[in-house]
Design goal:
The protein is built from eleven helices and seven strands. With 311 residues, the chain is of the alpha+beta class.
Length: 311
């Protein structure tokens, strides 16, 4: 095998002046990292409006390549002078998309699956089962009578910025309170409510509208606001359509339509996974400690019986 490689290397070097580089494990790892980065970059660009701007930039680059081939020196000189300004223009034009990408990257908890659960206890508590059930019941109660609603369930990313746009409530979440807030012609029905833990912290909150081109034109402002807040945070946003009464949920920039009670329950339950795992581990530790105490008591009892027998 080595002889074949040596022959191929000498042939390429003598005939084409090409040498075969030595590839190490580090080189392979570096290639994989660059490939993944480029794949994620193009995937991100294609999923935003930056794709149209990116195609415009490619057209300009093709134009300058043609100018270089035809030796149009004046055009090349202008392009060289505009290159430095083009970098700044690129940042200015793509600023919303770059900010969104960095926010999504910052929301990812890279250490949750690596660090022990005892290191992340601040993230373990979400909301009680009663809160989850009240949200589900209120959503379908409002859907039955076609009352529009927008419920934002806060996760790790705090929504203080959007909470300040509404009216402070700080009230315990109940089924009746949610239905009453979104009742038509009431002072608090317009806008979104923000839920933090087991409490409604604010109502009539204004949310950012999505600029995604993939959203259907038939959807209204509520659905666009739900997708918009899910793009800039990790919140779970529940939408009750005023026209159809159907339930939709926005998560991570995606909208899931026409959910039933089981589907909504599954989504809200996933937000409690960390808490459930923590409680499960606490129960397991409690059982283990009880078993250890039983074993110790049995050992002590057997030792006592052995001493009495010896006497």
């Amino acid at each position: 095998m080595n002889n074949v490689l040596d022959f191929a290397e000498s042939f390429l070097r003598d005939c084409f002046n090409i040498s075969i580089p030595i590839i190490t494990v580090t080189d392979i790892l570096e290639i994989i990292i660059i490939a993944v980065f480029l794949y994620e970059l193009f995937k991100w660009v294609q999923s935003t409006r930056a794709w149209m701007l990116f195609k415009g930039v490619l057209i300009i680059l093709v134009f300058f390549v043609v100018a270089a081939l035809l030796q149009m020196n004046t055009i090349l000189w202008i392009g060289e002078k505009l290159l430095n300004a083009g970098v700044i223009a690129f940042i200015v034009v793509f600023q919303p998309e770059l900010r969104k990408a960095l926010e999504q990257l910052g929301r990812r908890n890279l250490f949750r699956n690596v660090l022990p659960s005892s290191w992340t206890k601040g993230e373990l508590l979400r909301y009680e089962d009663s809160t989850k059930n009240d949200i589900i019941k209120a959503s379908f109660d409002m859907g039955r009578v076609k009352t529009g609603a927008l419920i934002v369930v806060e996760q790790d990313v705090k929504l203080k910025e959007y909470e300040r746009t509404g009216i402070d409530l700080d009230a315990l979440l109940t089924r009746q309170l949610l239905v009453n807030i979104f009742e038509k012609n009431t002072p608090l029905h317009d806008g979104a409510v923000i839920v933090r833990g087991d409490r409604i912290v604010a109502a009539t909150c204004y949310l950012p509208l999505t600029e995604s081109l993939g959203i259907s034109k038939e959807l209204g402002t509520r659905h666009r606001a739900a997708v918009g807040i899910s793009e800039v945070s990790d919140a779970i946003t529940i939408v009750v359509s005023e026209e159809t009464g159907k339930i939709s949920v926005a998560i991570d920039g995606r909208l899931y339509h026409d959910l039933d009670k089981d589907g909504l329950n599954l989504i809200l339950s996933k937000a409690q996974v960390i808490k459930e795992e923590h409680e499960k581990k606490k129960k397991e530790k409690k059982v283990e400690s009880q078993e250890t105490e039983v074993v110790n008591l049995s050992d002590a009892k057997s030792d006592g019986e052995g001493d009495s027998n010896e006497e």
